[in-house]
Amino acid sequence: KLAETGQPKSRFQWVDPSYQGQGTMNHSLTPSQLQKSPLFNHMQDAIATLLINKPADPSSMLELVSKQLLKGTQPLKETKKGPKTLQQKDLPRYTKPAPKEGEEEEEEKGNMPDLMAVMDQLVWVGVALSESETYRVMVSMRKLLDSKPLLNVRLWGKIIGLSVDYYITEGEIDPEAAQEEEDPSPEGEEEEEKKTVYEDLNTYKAKPPPKVQAEGRGVGTNKYVYYVTTTDEINSWTELPDVQPEWILAARKVKKFFTGRLDATVHSHPPFPGTEKEYLRATIARITHCTVVCPKDVFRLTDPPEEDDTSEEGGQKKKKPYKVEAYEDVPEVNADHEPPDPEDEEAYKELKMWAEGYQEDALLQHVNWVHLMPEILKEQGRASLFKPPEDDAEVEDGEEPPPPPPIEKINPRLSDLSHDRKLKFTNHSKQHYPPWSVRKVFGQNTSDTRIYALHSHVWKGAVTSALCVDGTPGAVYWNFYLGNGIKSEPAATVFSPPLPPSLQAEFQGTAPNVLQVDATPDDEQEFAKPPTPVPVDDGDGDDDDDEQ
After folding, report:
1. Pairing of β 449-456 and β 436-442
2. Do the strands 150-159 and 409-410 form a parallel or antiparallel pair, or are they unpaired?
3. Residue 171 CA to its chain's centroid (Å)
4. If 0-12 CB within 10 Å is exposed, 13-18 middle and 19+ buried, where does residue 487 land?
C-alpha cells in the first residue's frame, strides 16, 4: 500500500481506533509520534516481559505474551525465572534411551554430573564450552566412566595447546574395583648404582639428603586420578601418572606453553625431569590445590581441632596465630551435615548463613569462600609433611645429630580467601592486588535465585560459579579451568619492561637566542689569512745551466 500511494517508506501507516466514521483514516507518524502511540507502549511491555522471564524460545512466545497482556492476565505464569533449567522436552538430550523389551537395563558404574546443566550455569560466569563441544565431551566422559573403575568423574577443565587442546577429567578411584583389575607382579631386586672412583673419594662419609617420597593414591596431591584427551581424538583417554614431588618443584621454575602432545620434550632451564605428560600432571596439581574453592560451611572438618584456652598474665587470652605447622596427616572434610534445628540457638547461629542459602549477598565477601584442597608445601612439593626415617649411625660414632629443619607454616585446612597472599606488581596502580575477584552475575528483587562468579588472578581462567536459592541450604557450585596453564607471577619473577625515561627539560637561557648569518665572499676575504709570499729567483741557476 505504501508503494501504491507513493508515500515515503520512512513513515508508518496506522489506523486511528478513535475514528468512528465509515472506513478508515490513514495517518503518517514520525518516530517521535510513534513512541507515544498505544501500540509502542504495548510492544515495549511485551519485550520487557520476555527479557525478565528469559524463555527458551522468545520469538515464539511473543504472540502469547501479547495476548496475555491484552487480557490482563499474568504473562508467562508457568515459565521458570532465572537460569535455564532442565525441561521435559530436553530429557532425551541428557538421559539414555529406555531399554527395549527383553533387554536388561545396564547399571551405571559411577556418578557424573549433568555436563550440559553445568555449562548452562558457567555461561553466566563467561567461561564455558559451546553446546556442541559440551555434548561431545559428555558422551566421551560417559564412555570413560563405563570403562574405568571410577566412583565419580567431573570435567576438570580445558588447557589450550599450540597444536591441539587438552580436555582433562578428574575422577575418584573405586578401591574395590581397582584391586580386582590389578594383577600382582613379583617385585624385582633393586640394582645398586655403580659409582666411579672419583665419586667414591668425594662422597666418603657424605650422605645425600633424603629423597622426598610421593604421596600414595587417594592422599594429598594424589587424592584424585586424572585422564586427558585431545580435541582431535576426543574418545581416546590417557591416564596421567601420580604426581611426584620433584615434578611440582621443577614445574614452579618452568614457564612453557603446552604443545598438545604428551610425549613432547620439555625444553627448559632448569631442565624438567620428564616429558609433557609429567609437566601437565604437575601443572594440574598446582592449579587444583590453588583454585578449587567452595562456599563456607559446605564442607566441615571431620575432627575439628580443640580450642586452646591458654591465657597470658592478667587473664587476657593470647591471640592465636592463623598459620599452622604443616600437617603430617591432612585433616579430612565431609559435607554430610544436616540443617540445624532453629530452636538450638548456638548450633543454628554457627550454620545460619549456610542453612538460609547465603542471603544478603554473603558470597560477595572473600571471607565466605574457603579452599577445599590443602596447600602444597614450598620445600617438599607435597600436601602432607614428609619426615625421613631416623638414622642412628651418627649417634653411635659419638657425633651429635644435626638439628631438624624448621617445619613450614601454612594456612589451615579450609582457610578462607581473605588470607591469601596479595599480588604485587611494580608497574600497577595498586601496590597490593587481590588474588580473587567476585561479583554477582544474576539476581533480581523478584527472584529468589542468585548466581555468583569467582575469578582467580593467580591462574587466569580458573573460575567458580555458585547458585544460591533463598531458604535452600548450601549452594550448587562448580569449579572449572579454561586457560593455557601459565601462572601470573608478581613482577619480581616475571620480566616487566622498564618505563620510558622522563622528558628532558627545555633550555632555560637568559639572553635571547640569536641565529648565525652565513658569511659572504667579501667577509671571507676580510677574515682570511694573508697569502704566503712566493720566493724570488736571483738568476744564478740559469747562468750555470747555460754554461753547461
Report:
1. antiparallel
2. unpaired
3. 19
4. middle
Which residue intervals of 318-432 are DSSP H helices? 345-350, 352-355, 393-396
Other CB atoms within a 10 A radius of the CB of residue 337 amount to 14
Cell numbers at residue 72, please? 490482563
pLDDT digit string (tens) for 234-251?
A: 999 999 999 999 999 999
Rg of the chain (C-alpha set): 39
Q: Show the cell assigned to 298.
A: 559446605
- Cα distance from N-terminal residue to C-terminal residue, the chain: 130
Identify the sign of the CA torsion 291, 296, 299, 300.
positive
> How many other CB atoms sit within 10 Å of the CB of residue 189?
5
Distance of CA 353 to the CA centre of its chain: 26
Task: Specify whether the CB–CB gap between 122 and 144 falls below 8 A.
Answer: no
Look at strands 449-456 and 12-15 and give their pairing.
Answer: unpaired
- Secondary structure of 306-347 in the HEC alphabet? CCCCCECCCCCECCCCCCEECCCCCCCEECCCCCCCCCCHHH
d(CA 67, CA 45): 12
Residue with cell 562468579: 453
Q: Quick: pLDDT tens for 356-414.
A: 889 889 999 999 999 999 999 999 999 999 988 776 555 555 567 677 778 899 999 99
Name the grid cell of 250: 621443577
Q: Alpha-carbon distance 140 to 120, whole Å?
A: 19
